[in-house]
Amino acid sequence: MAFDVIISGGRVLDGTGAPPYRADVAITGDRVAAVGRLGGAQGASAATVIDATGRLVSPGFVDCHAHGDATVFDPSVQLAALRQGVTTFVLGQDGLSYAPGSAGTVAYAARYFAAVNGPLPGSLAGGPLSVARLLDAYDRAVALNTAYLLPHGTIRYDVMGPSPDAPAPDELRRMLTHVERGLSEGAVGLSSGLEYLPGRYASAEELAALCVPLGGLPYVTHMRAYGARAGVGMAEVSEIAARSGAAVHVSHLHGPADVLLPLVEEALAAGVDLTFDTYPYLRGSTILAMVVLPPDVPAAETDRALEMLTSGELDAWWPGLAQTWPRLTVSHAPGLEWAEGLSMVEAAERAGVEPAEFCRRLLVETRLEAGCVSARPDEGPEGEESVRRMLRHPAQTGGSDAIYVGGHPHPRGFGAFARFLGRHVRELGDWTWEQAAVHLAAHPARRFGLVDRGLLRAGFAADVVVFDPATVADRATYEAPRTLAGGVDDVLVSGVPVLAGGEPTGATPGRALRA
What we know:
There is one protein chain. Helix content is 32%, strand content 20%. By secondary structure, the protein is an alpha/beta fold. The two termini are 33 Å apart. The model has no long low-confidence stretch (mean pLDDT 96).
């Protein structure tokens, strides 16, 4: 028997939840050809043999929530993912990305979410962009697979601009046409960002109408409320599911487990097809404007928002944020890069002003494009225990919420999946190794309709990660967030080695995965 690649001597985590077992994995072309004992009398041979002795062999991990829409073209971002065993990014998150839309819509999405998604490559910038064209740009151009969610906020802006009004019937029909066309071009679901603009203006009725065509693919939502107010967000999620019949997936479901888990169980008991993703950290990261500006500031209209910031209209707002400043670290500050990595308090001290004034200057001088890392109020043992309880729930899937923009991003993009394995499996025992393969590969592949991924089984796509269970670990920290993870040395995407001995091979076999 002759194959292209044989991974020999390792213990296989096949993604079904079965305990690891001794087997070889043979690959022909872009498919798994066989899993079993292929040496000795079997006489199997291959042009490439990877010795996995002492290591685990798993389906490639699916990052359910990654903001790599533009940065995935960066080889350093690809390497950061591969060193954690991630072979697929699910993009188009939080209701805001680049397609589908006119040139004006693409420009808006690029500007408003600049601190999250980063700038599009020149070949895609400056004109209208369809889902098909964006997926074609990803296909075989990067080392990772990419899947794309239709971003509700982008679609709404393309039809209604920054308007806060409910859509007229014709406007809703036009949004629905965008959804139907995007699905036909390969999108794997619909996302919303209900704390961002213009998604914040949408009602459950509007969102449910746009979910009707999904046909089993998920509605993926950054809810309207988290933490102690998560009941508000989850009630809306359940309403949208009931109105549309859609499966739902809640993004980065973080906060007190005593609040969140009963809400999850209540939705499941009511028949909602619900999953959620979490990442193993106690700090978040997003655009600074969303964290600090009052909801009546029209951040979707940059010039008007800047006018409010410079005119003194918000002077009465800033004193109420006194407890917020110590929790914020500047992650992205174009033109003020010296502040990146400093807390808002530290940066203000260096600038010789109060934190509120520095924050205002930062927003104005970056034209609202600044980003931040924010600490949760429950940072500490209580918050850590909530993270552990959330990831142990059967409906959980792994997501990094990775943001790669800025000089000092959150470390989750460089360490989340390695942290799941090293800390939460090996050190804490929150999962077994076989459970990790389900949460990080099989479960998300099923949720996003990637029917030939997530399992190591003959006929499935050969996305494979080989890692050392004794050494796999995250190394990125809040102080050094771009440090690569360790313990993952061999990764294949579509049967092609993309990481060998811990180093990138330069191959770009990543596919744009169409539903």
